[in-house]
Amino acid sequence: MHENLPPNPGYRLAFAVGGLLTTYGPTEIHRQSLDIGKSDLDVIKRDLTVIVETILPNLEEDLKAAGAPWIEGQGLIKD
Fold first, then answer.
1. Is residue 78 situated within a structural domain?
2. Inside any domain, residue 1
């Protein structure tokens, strides 16, 4: 892993798992990394929930109102 890149949840969680592979781990820093990674994921989940439950449905309705064609994943065509 590159130390010059900012840590992300995946990096933090991978580091925490690495603590399970040592003969004297996990250490306190492994535990802290796990807690920070979980916290980072909670923020991402919250942001994605807003996108999936609010922004995308509104965008879909705007596209339908503008007469855009049906796209795969929208469900059944009702007209």
1. no
2. no
Q: What is the pLDDT of residues 6-53, one digit of tens each?
A: 778 888 888 888 888 877 778 888 888 889 889 999 999 999 999 999
Whole-angstrom Cα distance, residue 30 to residue 34? 6
Angle between helix 28-50 and 9-18 (nearest 10) = 150
Distance CA 27, CA 16 (A): 9
Which positions ≥6 away from 27 have C-beta within 8 Å? 19
pLDDT band at 2 (very low <50, low <70, confident <90, very high): low
C-alpha span between 48 and 44 (Å, rounded): 6
Q: Is residue 71 part of a domain?
A: no
